[in-house]
Amino acid sequence: MSMGLEMDIEDTEEFVEDHNAELTTEALQDLHMEQQQEVAEELSSGEETVDRKGSIPSEDIMELLG
């Protein structure tokens, strides 16, 4: 059954690219929220130093975002 919609390979590739970018952005947002929560917990527990082993350099974030 056809609905009169046509897609070519370029349309498909564009859709996949856009979808991957959205997932990447969502993953970065989740990671950022987790890091904020960890820092807040460390500060509330009285720790003076913040462990940054889970941080991501800005360069890596920019590369992921393209």
From TrEMBL:
Residues 34-66 are annotated as: Disordered. This is Uncharacterized protein.
